[in-house]
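Collaborator request, handled under Task 6.
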Amino acid sequence: MKKQLMIITSLCLTVSSFCFPSVSFAADKYENYEELAANEQIGEDYVIRTRSNSSNVTVMAIHGGGIEPGTSKIAEGIAGDNYNLYLFEGKKPAGENRDLHITSTHFDEPAAVKMAARAHKVVSVHGAAGVDTQIVYMGGNNHYLKEIIARKLAEKNFEIAPTTPPEYAGTNPKNICNMNRTHAGVQMELTRGLRDELSSKPERFEDFVTAVRQGISAAYANPYERVFDFNYDNFTSSTWINGGKLFYLDQSDYILGVQNPNNTNDSVTIRFNVYDQNNRLVMSRTKTSSFREGLIKHQLTGLPSGYYKIQIVNTSKLSSYVYAGLHY
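Structure tokens returned to the collaborator:
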């Protein structure tokens, strides 16, 4: 019998008086990275810094440098030496970096999309309005990780907003923080007042990044279910998950992850074939997706309990990557 660990937690914060800072959002100058790259000079107007440590955690600041000041340093602190790091940093003169802001639901710089897709956990650091407040707005669809991080921050006397305004919620599936292999990440919006405090007080900076790192570590201690992960880069043909070894599966199990073409102008079709112990094809699940549209969830509905093996087929034969997990 399969067992799934269900964890119910709650975070209770008492705030004597609280009001959201007024927020005004200017329209982005560029709709996506392709438009930005055609008009801005990489290395001069902006830089992209990445570091991959073969970790399952990626920390991002997609509005780093002068775009949302302080977020690059905070992301670097959270990543430390062991988590993957992605930074998109504005380098233009003061007052001009807002031109480089691409909203999280449109942010499609290829390296960022791929790093998010490969990760189990994504923590995306942003800057919010509010010069006179020191507040963290917790967003994203990984509610379990979000709550643990919030609790760890509260223990260090950081103020967590009891309610996150819609513009900071980070719940859109196309938000870069949610485009990982579990379709659920964390978005942290820090007010300008808090970012300034962390910049000027090293001990508070250390408290902050340590609390977030403790939250990430604590989340690993409580997996919800068994997952067999698989990663395929430059995938053009077919392969067997786990070399064709059998899994005991039933109709409650599913495949969850991301598939994307390596060429941002392509669309790719990936098929998952389920075979029984007698090598009979009993089920197929297929999805066609263009770049950044490749979130996949294939439920094995109707599959009788038993032993099966799963084949992945790239029917389009275009170079792609597939980062996913069999949840069983």
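The cover message to the collaborator said: "The radius of gyration is 21 Å. Residues 58 and 162 are 26 Å apart (CA to CA). Please let us know whether this matches your experimental observations."
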